[in-house]
C-alpha cells in the first residue's frame, strides 16, 4: 500500500501460468469484495501520513471466525520500501491487503500506519491515502480510475489490455470472464500526500499519490472538507471527474501515455512506457505488491511467502533462493514454465 497505488499496486507482462490466469480485473476487484460493514469510531481522526510505514502486528483474521485465514501475521514495511507478497492461491495475500484497506478488522493483533492503529482513524482518510495499481500488463480502463483510485472499482466497465491479442478489450467487470491478461496488484502508500498542481477542485486534489517533496496537507482543509460534508465517501460520486485521478495520473505521466491511444492496440513501446510510469509512481512510496510473476519482484526489499495464512518464508530474493525452500521452488517452477513453448501455458492453472 502505500500509495498502493492499490494499488496500485506493482498491481508485469507477458507471463504465463502463474500470472496467466491471474488477471485480472476480477482478481484485482476481488480485493474489493463486499466487506462487512466497518464503522468508524466516534472519536476517529484522520490518518496522518508522515512516512508511510506499515506494520502488521500479530494479525489474525478469518472470514469465518472458526476458520482463520490469517494466523498471527507480523511484518513491517518501512517508509518507501517495497514488500512483495507471494505464495499459492488462497494463501492470504489479498486478505492482507483487504485488512490494510480496513475492509475487515483483524480478530487479533493490529495494523499500524505511521504508528496509528488503522481502527482508530476514519476509513475515508485511510483509503484516500492508499492507492492501488494493477501492474504487469497495464489494466487501463476508460476512466483511469481503476488504476489510480479504488473508489469506482466494482462498477461500470473496464478495458483490459490483453498482451496475447494486443488489443484493448472492453469487458464487463462483473461478467466473471477472464481476459487472459495478467497482472499483479500493488498497493502504494504515499508518505506525504500533497495537493498536486493541476486541475480539479481544491478539496479533491489531495491525491493518493503525489509528490513526496511537498508539504503534508493531510490535516489541512482537504480532510476537513470531506469529513465536514457528513462522513464517508461523500466524494465518491465525484471520484471520476474530480482532480485526484487526473492529478495522480498526470504525476505518473500515465495520462499522457494513455491519451495517445483511444481504443487502439498498444505497441511494445507504449506498454513499456506504462510500466515505467508505474515504476516511477512507486518510487519513494511504501509499496505492497502481490506478485504472481516472480521476476517482477526480485528487487523488492522484502518478500513474504504467504501460505495457509502464515508467513512461511521471509527475506530478499537472494536470501530466499539461498534458503532453497518454497520461494526457490516457485522460482524454479516459473523458469521451467518460461521455457515451455508459448501458448502451452495458457491452460495451466495459476499458482
Ligand atoms: P490468490 O493468489 O488466488 O489471489 P490469495 O493468496 O490472495 O489468493 P486470499 O484471496 O487472501 O488468497 O484468500 C485467503 C483465504 O480466504 C482462501 O482460503 C479464500 O478462499 C478465503 N476467502 C477469501 N475471501 C473470502 C470471503 N469473502 N469469504 C470467505 N472466505 C474467503
Automatic annotation (TrEMBL):
Descriptive protein name: Homocysteine S-methyltransferase 1
Family to which this protein belongs: Belongs to the ABC transporter superfamily. ABCB family. Heavy Metal importer (TC 3.A.1.210) subfamily.
Compositionally biased intervals (Acidic residues): 216-238
Top-rank lineage group of the source organism: Eukaryota
Residues of the full protein shown: 533 to 883 of 1046
Stretches for region Disordered: 164-238
Residues annotated as domain ABC transporter: 54-333
Locations listed in the record: Membrane
Amino acid at each position: 500500500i502505500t500509495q498502493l497505488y492499490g494499488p496500485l499496486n506493482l498491481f508485469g507482462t507477458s507471463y504465463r501460468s502463474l500470472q496467466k490466469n491471474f488477471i485480472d480485473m476480477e482478481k484485482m476487484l476481488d480485493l474489493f469484495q463486499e466487506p462487512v460493514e466497518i464503522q468508524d469510531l466516534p472519536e476517529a481522526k484522520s490518518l496522518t501520513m508522515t512516512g508511510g510505514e506499515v506494520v502488521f502486528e500479530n494479525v489474525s483474521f478469518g472470514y469465518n471466525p472458526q476458520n482463520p485465514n490469517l494466523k498471527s501475521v507480523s511484518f513491517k514495511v518501512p517508509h518507501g520500501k517495497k514488500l512483495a507478497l507471494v505464495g499459492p492461491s488462497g494463501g492470504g495475500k489479498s486478505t492482507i491487503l483487504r485488512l490494510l484497506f480496513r475492509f475487515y478488522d483483524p480478530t487479533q493483533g493490529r495494523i499500524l500506519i505511521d504508528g496509528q492503529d488503522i481502527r482508530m482513524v476514519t476509513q475515508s482518510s485511510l483509503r484516500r491515502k492508499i492507492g492501488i495499481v494493477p501492474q504487469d500488463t497495464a489494466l487501463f480502463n476508460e476512466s483511469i480510475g481503476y488504476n489510480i483510485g479504488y473508489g469506482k472499482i466494482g462498477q461500470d466497465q473496464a478495458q483490459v489490455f490483453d498482451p496475447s491479442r494486443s488489443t484493448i478489450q472492453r469487458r464487463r467487470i462483473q461478467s466473471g470472464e477472464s481476459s487472459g491478461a495478467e497482472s499483479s496488484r500493488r498497493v502504494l502508500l504515499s508518505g506525504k500526500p500533497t495537493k498536486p498542481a493541476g486541475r480539479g477542485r481544491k478539496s479533491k486534489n489531495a491525491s493518493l499519490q503525489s509528490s513526496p517533496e511537498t508539504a503534508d496537507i493531510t490535516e489541512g482543509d482537504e480532510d476537513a472538507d470531506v469529513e465536514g460534508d457528513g462522513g464517508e465517501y461523500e466524494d465518491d460520486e465525484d471520484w471520476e471527474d474530480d482532480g485526484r485521478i487526473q492529478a495522480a495520473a498526470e504525476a505518473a505521466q500515465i495520462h499522457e501515455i494513455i491519451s495517445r491511444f483511444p481504443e487502439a492496440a498498444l505497441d511494445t513501446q507504449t506498454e513499456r512506457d506504462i510500466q515505467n510510469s508505474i515504476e516511477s509512481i512507486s518510487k519513494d512510496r511504501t509499496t505492497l505488491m502481490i506478485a504472481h510473476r516472480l521476476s517482477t519482484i526480485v528487487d523488492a526489499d522484502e518478500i513474504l511467502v504467504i501460505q495457509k495464512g502464515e508467513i512461511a518464508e521471509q527475506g530478499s530474493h537472494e536470501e530466499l533462493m539461498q534458503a532453497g525452500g518454497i520461494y526457490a521452488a516457485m522460482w524454479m517452477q516459473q523458469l521451467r514454465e518460461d521455457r515451455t513453448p508459448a501458448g502451452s501455458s495458457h491452460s495451466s492453472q495459476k499458482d
